[in-house]
Amino acid sequence: xxxxxxxxxxxxxxMYRPPSEGGSFSLLLxxxxxxxxxxxxxxxxxxxxxxxxxxxxxxxxxxxxxxxLINDMASLSRELGHDGRIDRDTIVAMIGKEPGLNTSHxxxxxxxxxxxxxxxxxxxxxxxxxxxxxxxxxxLTYLRSTFPFLERCTTYARSxxxxxxxxxxxxAIRKAGLDRLHVGMETGDDALxxxxxxxxxxxxxxxxGKKAIEAGFQLSEYWMPGLGGREDWENHARNTAKVLNAINxxxxxxxxxxxxxxxxxxxxxxxxxxxxxSPLETLIELKLMIETLNVTSKVCFDHAGNSWVxxxxxxxxxxxxxxxxxxxEKVRVLDLIEAGIEHLEGQ
Length: 347
Ligand code: SF4
Prior knowledge:
The chain is α/β, with parallel strands linked by helices and about 350 residues long. It is built from 13 helices and 10 strands. The strands form 2 sheets. It has an 8-stranded mixed β-sheet. A two-stranded antiparallel ribbon has the order 2-3. Strand 4, helix 5 (about 135-145) and strand 5 (about 150-155) form a beta-alpha-beta unit. The structure holds iron/sulfur cluster. Iron/sulfur cluster binds near residues 43, 45 and 158.
């Protein structure tokens, strides 16, 4: 929540967004609060928070607040003789008028968004598709008409919710201006999905993913190298590739597993029922997954956890949000993995 002192410019922002939305300085708009599922054993993001829907009025209020902030800064700029440009002098003058903005994290976020072109928006929190479809269409339409210069609007979604939504509703949401969905698939292995309490099967991942693509969304699927530990690594690698092959999403993003203190999976590691993979073992798992992959997706390593290095101490993979285009660059990725394995075996 923003402090009261920013008055009519107050709007609500949540905590999390995918790495690619940070890199493009997306505007963060909170459509729902926290996660409606909140049971995954590895996830601590919303652990102590309760899920709630926000009303259409609340979300439109936030959009209006941001629009007012931008319009008022542009007017101030013109008064200063700066042609409506939101430059340093304008920002200083704006803070002079509304001192609470000086310490507002949200104000900084809007300025970063504008300075990077104001092109992209990310809708928070964990699963915006929990909103009734007609309400989601309503606020998306309002968002697009308020900021007609937007080029991309994305959000998190669960496969289960996608699988349950009627196809026509997904298509309507897509047409109203939601472009890309980030789905936490984690693994395609049914036994591991059950163990981590993902609340979804490999088949449901496939169904949800296919429906999203059919509706016209760009689909970004996240998987977690190392999630199964030594106990399940092989099934994890093979079945993740199998499910991804069936979906063929636009993006496959690797977010390596690291136990989050306070989560059940962290306790499992402490008790010794889950044995963490070493960096070398994780690369061997990654090799098997990539070898089994038969897709036309972009395979990305844009999360900071993809920290393997080569013998020169440089990152093994680019952390570009566009990653490596498959199948064209599959051999290249396998060569990079091999170089990483050789480096770690030689240590
Ligand atoms: S669905 Fe996503 S946000 Fe919710 S508990 Fe699982 S990983 Fe966390």
